[in-house]
C-alpha cells in the first residue's frame, strides 16, 4: 500500500471540496470554502499547492484553467487518520476510544443498532 500523505485540518477542508466533485477549479474551491473559513484566495491557493506537493491532488490544464482531481481516496485518508489518531491518543487501544465516543455523543436508536450489528459481526470473526 502506498504511503498516505499527512493532510492538515485546513487541507482537509480543501480535499472535502475536491472529493465531492468530479473535477474542480481553484476558483470553485475558493467559492465552496467561502462560508466555511475566513480564508483569502491566496491562502486557498497555497493549500492547493501544498496538497499537490504531497501527492494528494493532481492538476490538469484544461484550455485556460486548471482542473484539480484527488489522487487519494476519501475512505483511505479517513482510515489512515483514524489509525493515526487511535495510536497517538489511545496508544492503539480501540475500546477506550469507542467508550469515549459513545459516552460523549447523542446516538439515535438506529445508530445504536448499527453499532451493535458491527460489534456482533466483529465478535463472530
Query: Which stretches are low in confidence, meaning pLDDT under 50 for 5 or more residues running?
Result: none
Structural class of the helices, strands and pairings?
mainly alpha
Q: Major β-sheet, in short?
A: 2 strands, antiparallel
Order of helices and strands: HHHEEHHH
Number of helices: 6
Number of strands: 2
Rg of Cα set: 18 Å
pLDDT averaged over residues: 92
Share of β-strand residues: 5-15%
CATH superfamily of the largest domain: Winged helix-like DNA-binding domain superfamily/Winged helix DNA-binding domain
> Looking at the structure, what is the overall shape?
elongated
Number of domains: 2
CATH topology of the largest domain: Arc Repressor Mutant, subunit A
Amino- and carboxy-terminal Cα gap: 24 Å
CATH architecture of the largest domain: Orthogonal Bundle
Explain the overall architecture:
By secondary structure, this protein is mainly alpha-helical. It has two domains: 1-92, Winged helix-like DNA-binding domain superfamily/Winged helix DNA-binding domain (Arc Repressor Mutant, subunit A), CATH 1.10.10.10; 95-125, no CATH class. The protein contains six helices and two strands. The mean pLDDT is 92.
Amino acid at each position: 500500500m502506498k504511503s498516505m500523505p499527512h493532510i492538515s485540518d485546513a487541507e482537509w477542508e480543501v480535499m472535502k471540496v475536491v472529493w465531492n466533485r468530479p473535477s474542480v477549479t481553484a476558483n470553485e474551491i475558493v467559492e465552496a470554502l467561502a462560508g466555511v473559513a475566513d480564508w483569502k484566495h491566496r491562502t486557498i491557493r497555497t493549500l492547493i499547492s501544498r496538497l499537490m506537493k504531497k501527492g494528494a491532488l493532481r492538476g490538469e490544464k484544461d484550455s485556460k484553467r486548471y482542473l484539480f482531481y484527488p489522487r487519494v481516496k476519501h475512505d483511505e485518508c479517513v482510515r489512515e487518520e483514524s489509525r493515526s489518531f487511535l495510536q497517538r491518543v489511545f496508544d492503539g487501544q480501540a475500546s477506550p476510544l469507542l467508550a469515549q465516543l459513545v459516552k460523549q455523543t447523542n446516538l439515535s436508536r438506529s445508530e445504536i443498532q448499527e453499532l451493535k450489528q458491527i460489534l456482533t459481526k466483529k465478535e463472530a470473526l
